[in-house]
Design brief:
The termini are far apart. This protein has one domain: Phosphoenolpyruvate-binding domains (TIM Barrel), CATH 3.20.20. The chain contains twelve helices and eight strands.
Length: 271
């Protein structure tokens, strides 16, 4: 048992908020099945995310757009069976939260049928009403800002977001509005280090980064990028398996590197 877990030894939303207050980095990783769920849990991961990245890394699709709510439930139920300690976060796939009513129905399914403890949805100020509605119903939410892969066709590729002053200011305002609406965690994907730092220092809730520099309150990676499976991994990833030679050791080494702020290093950071 630790000060960061519930009496039954689990990571809760309150645990994540305490980690932010104490400056203890949060370690998170994606998983799509029970075996990796257990492995990540045993390595001491604080959050296991069933990401809609499963569309690309598991199903072999070109984007995350074809992923359905039933796909998410199938994989989340499997991961649920492997995870005991970590908080289980599950992505809301493309078009499953187009209205607050759709979001409520689909988030409810993720919680009831798959055992999700938090849902994640992509979007800025446009999602404020949805986040407020989920919050009113007791559903913890992570708001995903920065690069939003479900909007790939709108933004024209997987690019760094928030580079110019206007878009950086808009992202900060979105994050504040989502926090005020009840978001429990904010995730920033591919955001310059300085902007990620600014958003983190203005929010009371934890900011988890992916490709957003070392100053976030926590880090997350797609599992396949962290164990050398992705053919052309993003620049912000590191192959932890190459350095350790075993998957369990690789996951432990990732958790340790995040906790000691050795990951991401300069070579994985976007200025
Ligand atoms: O779907 C996913 O794996 C994600 C990560 C990029 C954080 O959202």
């Amino acid at each position: 048992m630790s000060v960061y877990t519930t009496p039954s030894g689990e990571i809760s939303v309150a645990s994540l908020h305490r980690m932010k207050r104490d400056g203890r980095p949060i370690a998170a990783m994606t998983a799509y099945d029970a075996s990796f769920g257990r492995l990540l849990d045993d390595a001491g991961m604080d959050i296991v995310l069933v990401g809609d990245s499963l569309g690309m890394v598991i199903q072999g699709q070109d984007t995350t757009l074809p992923v359905t709510i039933d796909d998410m439930i199938y994989h989340a139920r499997a991961v649920r069976r492997g995870v005991r300690r970590a908080l289980l976060m599950v992505d809301m796939p493309f078009m499953s939260f187009a209205t607050p009513e759709d979001a409520l129905a689909n988030a409810g399914r993720l919680m009831k049928e798959a055992g999700a403890q938090m849902v994640k949805l992509e979007g800025g100020a446009a999602q404020v009403a949805t986040v407020r509605r989920l919050n009113e119903c007791g559903i913890p939410v992570c708001a995903h800002l920065g690069l939003k892969p479900q909007s790939v066709h709108k933004i024209g590729g997987y690019r760094i977001q928030g580079r110019d002053e206007a878009s950086a200011q808009a992202m900060l305002e979105d994050a504040l509005a989502l926090e005020a609406a009840g978001a429990d965690v904010v995730l920033l994907e591919c955001v310059p280090q300085g902007l990620a730092r600014e958003i983190g220092s203005n929010l009371g809730v934890p900011v988890i980064g992916i490709g957003s520099g070392p100053d976030c309150d926590g880090q997350i990676l797609v599992l396949h990028d962290a164990i050398g499976v992705t053919p052309r991994p993003p620049r912000f990833a590191r192959d932890f398996l190459a350095a350790t030679g075993g998957i369990a050791e690789a996951m432990e080494s990732y958790v340790e590197a995040v906790r000691e702020r050795r990951f991401p290093g300069v070579e994985q950071t976007i200025e």
